[in-house]
Design goal:
Distance between the termini: 39 Å
Number of strands: 7
Order of helices and strands: HEHEEHHEEEEHHHHHHH
Number of domains: 1
Largest sheet: 5 strands, mixed
Shape: globular
Number of helices: 11
Oligomer: single chain
Strand order of the largest sheet: 3-2-1-6-7
Length: 263
């Protein structure tokens, strides 16, 4: 989490922990009785993959198997992407933007996602220099997850081509295995993983740079009041608007003098 927040700060988005989007995988051997349910916009049956990726194209969240007829919002409402947040199992996130303090990280998204405090979208048809600069940086950073999808398909022909299996469990295992191998390759080849982690700090904390020290409870018993309170925070539209306005000002102050946006 510290590494993701550090990368977000460098790119002008304090509190940003990745970009989220969905990808279709064509299911050639979808049973005929299910074809209507799984048929997407292209007129063929597909399965959807929701993923979160960072600047290095490392995919650290995936949710796979929703029918292609579902849009990204339908997938979001079934996804466990906020499960750790709602159950209070995530590390604390605290950052300040334009003088305002925030306690929840956020994802960069495209326009279909809802106006939640945990999502930051671009500005449609920006008119001012500030808005155009914000849209430029937001859209550039948001493409991380789309680039991750492209690399994943280029790296594994089984995902690029139509899937031939009949069983959705087999397809899930194929997708999971490909993403695991993809992440292993990224970690092996990208120097940023070593450069952005302070090994001494992690070792002093009683672990090592490759160890996940997050504790997960098997019983998953949470206080319902806190759960609903956290969900309200995640979906708060007022915070979404304030955060977006603060980020517009922050990016303008950080990059405005170095950008040529024309007239």
């Amino acid at each position: 989490m510290e590494r993701l927040l550090r990368i977000g700060e460098e790119r002008g988005f304090p509190g940003m922990i990745g970009s989220i989007d969905c990808m279709h995988w064509e299911w050639k051997n979808c049973p005929h009785a299910w074809k209507g349910q799984y048929q997407g916009r292209e007129g063929v049956a597909t399965l959807k993959l929701e993923a979160v990726a960072d600047r290095d194209l490392w995919i650290w969240h995936l949710f796979f198997g929703m029918p292609g007829s579902c849009n990204d919002i339908n997938v979001l409402h079934r996804s466990p992407v906020f499960e750790d947040v709602l159950e209070g199992r995530t590390p604390p996130v605290n950052f300040v933007v334009n003088g305002h303090h925030y306690t929840n990280g956020y994802y960069l998204t495209d326009g279909i996602y809802p106006r939640w405090a945990s999502f930051v979208k671009s500005i449609t048809s920006p008119q001012t220099h500030k808005d155009r600069l914000f849209a430029k940086h937001q859209e550039a950073a948001r493409k991380d997850v789309e680039c991750a999808f492209g690399v994943l398909q280029a790296r594994f022909a089984i995902i690029k081509k139509s899937s031939l299996a009949w069983d959705t469990d087999i397809l899930h295992n194929i997708m999971l295995a490909c993403i695991i191998i993809h992440n292993m390759i990224v970690e092996d080849e990208r120097e940023t993983y070593q450069n952005n982690v302070n090994t001494n700090e992690v070792m002093n904390a009683g672990g090592n740079a490759n160890e996940d020290t997050t504790e997960y409870r098997n019983d998953r018993i949470v206080d319902i009041g806190l759960y609903l309170s956290r969900r309200t925070e995640v979906e708060d539209q007022q915070t979404h608007l304030q955060l977006k306005n603060d980020l517009v000002e922050h990016i303008w102050n950080k990059f405005g003098n170095n950008e040529n946006l024309g007239n």
